[in-house]
Write a structure and sequence with these properties.
- The structure is a single chain.
- The chain has 90 residues and is mainly beta.
- The protein has a single domain, classed as Ubiquitin-like (UB roll).
- Helices cover 8% and strands 31% of the residues.
- The protein contains 1 helix and 7 strands.
- A hairpin with a 6-residue loop joins strand 1 and strand 2.
- The longest helix is centred in the middle third of the chain and has 7 residues.
- The chain is globular.
Length: 90
């Protein structure tokens, strides 16, 4: 079985892109594992505290968020990248 390549996550103010491993449940988990400070509260898409600007790429929600998400934004706690992405932490 061929393993799917990891998506790259490029973040403003972070020198090196991160790899999103297939076993990581969400973008928030990947950022936390890399010791990147991210605002969050609920971890389930209810509050919107983990909102980030999606500058490039595509994501998928593992569960549809209940918090309002503007065009061009993403909630890190309940999403995974489908492609390489570029984000700005808000």
């Amino acid at each position: 079985m061929v393993e799917k390549p990891c998506s790259k996550i490029t973040i403003n103010d972070v020198d090196e892109p991160l790899e999103f491993a297939a076993q990581s449940p969400t973008l928030l988990h990947t950022l936390e594992a890399a010791n990147i400070d991210v605002q969050y509260q609920c971890r389930e898409g209810f509050c919107g505290a983990c909102r980030a600007q999606l500058n490039d790429g595509k994501i998928a929600y593992i569960q549809e968020p209940l918090a309002f998400v503007r065009e061009g934004e993403v909630l890190l706690c309940c999403s995974r990248p489908l492609t390489d992405i570029k984000i700005t932490l808000l």
